[in-house]
Design a protein that fits this description.
There is one protein chain. This protein is an all-alpha fold and 433 residues long. It has 18 helices and two strands. It has a two-stranded antiparallel ribbon. It starts with a helix and ends with a helix.
Length: 433
């Protein structure tokens, strides 16, 4: 029964029926559904929160550490009221993450859940398309974004519409990342079945999902898709044999996407984003005593009027070395354990087949997070939850990736080097743009 409720909860979270139908306004469907799911999965939920289980789930510890850092940073910076709002919102996000890793406790459940994500994400794409082409009026949805684009050769300006959907996908960048997840789930099921008709079944949704991705005009989303494609090719063919395929695939994807999405060189917003990155890191480093817990949640909006458009920089600046470190280490652990950590033993067949797609899913989202601020939203922890479930089903990870003194010996330097690396990268890019 808990698995059924997880299906319903995920559909409600992704499709956002309250944003589509006025009759459901104020129904709090997500809140009630997640509470019902939590009650149904309570024994499993309490089990994954025990110390022995957390010890073998380093990503889960990072999520809890990030939650604690959010609270500490907020209260130490004096943003008590705002921090309470952030904590209330993130509690529901963290609860979904832990429900996901508690309920997806068999390879079959994980496989079928990846399949369930496809129709849910297709539903999001349909809503975005109907809204974009003004076929249906969804009063609660944000109006379609229209930007002016200047042709570099002629200087002529043209209007560009950017697709979006409801709720947490009321921004083209958020929408593009979840569409990429849907595409990669289709790719996994195509790779996992030997039946030709089944392969065609999973191939069909890829084209419309990619088309709607191009309508978002999101460079960050396109970078994520390219990274996911490259990761899958690398995992299946290896780096040396995969490079020609990766290059040809990237060229083809950019050609078919066209428009703003294909302009991944940076465009007119590159300088603005680099200024946001630089201002935030410089403000943090000017006061060494606040580096551990940062400038406080909401600093970017309050001081700069915009988010950093980089989840890793956003977390380091606002939540400090602890919050930024936990967020970075969560993705590093996921990528390492999927790609390298599990090679110490002979993988099971289901794991071997799923590995390329899972690596692609995590790397695609991490790449998207590098140009978008998505550190507090549900889809980010949906992806980390999928990675945690996949890794946990392999058995215990290597000792250095279990939460112990050996784990701290590499995660602490990684957190520090992450901040230093972001600072160096920002300075370097600033000289080039």
């Amino acid at each position: 029964m808990d698995y059924f409720f997880l299906y319903v909860l995920t559909a409600v979270m992704l499709i956002r029926p309250e944003d589509l139908f006025g009759e459901l306004d104020g129904a709090n469907l997500y809140l009630y559904t997640i509470l019902i799911t939590a009650v149904a999965a309570l024994p499993k939920l309490t089990h994954v929160l025990t110390l022995p289980e957390l010890t073998r789930r380093p990503i889960a510890v990072c999520v809890l550490g990030f939650f604690a850092s959010l609270a500490a940073s907020g209260f130490l910076s004096g943003r008590t009221e705002l921090t309470q709002e952030y904590l209330e919102g993130f509690f529901k996000v963290a609860l979904y993450y832990f429900l996901l890793i508690a309920i997806l406790d068999t390879p079959e459940r994980l496989k079928y859940f990846l399949g369930w994500l496809v129709p849910c994400i297709c539903g999001v794409a349909i809503v975005a398309s109907l809204h974009y082409y003004e076929v249906v009026d969804f009063p609660k949805l944000t109006p379609t974004i229209v930007e002016m684009r200047t042709d570099k050769e002629t200087g002529e300006q043209t209007e560009i519409k950017r697709a979006l959907a409801g709720g947490i996908f009321g921004d083209p960048n958020d929408l593009s990342l979840i569409l990429t997840l849907g595409i990669l789930c289709c790719v996994y099921h195509m790779m996992s079945t030997p039946d030709t008709s089944a392969k065609l079944f999973w191939l069909v949704p890829i084209a419309p999902l990619f088309f709607v991705t191009s309508l978002t005009g999101s460079r960050g989303g396109m970078l994520g898709l390219l990274a996911g494609f490259a990761a899958i090719v690398y995992a299946r063919r290896g780096m040396r044999a995969g490079i020609p395929i990766i290059i040809l695939g990237i060229v083809a994807l950019l050609y078919f996407a066209g428009g703003r999405s294909a302009d991944i060189a940076g465009g007119g917003t590159a300088r603005e984003r680099l200024n946001l990155w630089g201002e935030g890191i410089s403000a943090l480093l000017r006061h060494p005593f606040i580096i551990p817990f940062g400038l406080g949640p909401g600093w970017y909006i309050e001081d700069q009027g915009l988010l950093a458009h980089n989840s890793f920089i956003n977390t380091y600046v606002e939540l400090g070395l602890f919050g930024g470190g936990f967020f970075l280490v969560a993705f590093l652990s996921a990528l390492w354990l999927i790609d390298r950590g599990m090679k110490t033993a002979e993988p099971q067949e289901w794991s071997r087949v799923m590995r390329p797609a899972m690596l692609g899913i995590v790397l695609a989202y991490a790449a998207g997070c590098f140009s978008l601020s998505r550190h507090l939203v549900l889809p980010t922890y949906l992806v980390l939850g999928l990675a945690t479930a996949y890794i946990s089903l392999q058995g215990d990870p290597p000792v250095e990736h279990q939460v112990n003194s050996r784990w701290l010996r590499w995660t602490v330097p990684a957190a520090v080097l992450g901040l230093v690396g972001l600072k160096v990268l920002t300075v370097f890019l600033g000289m080039r743009v």
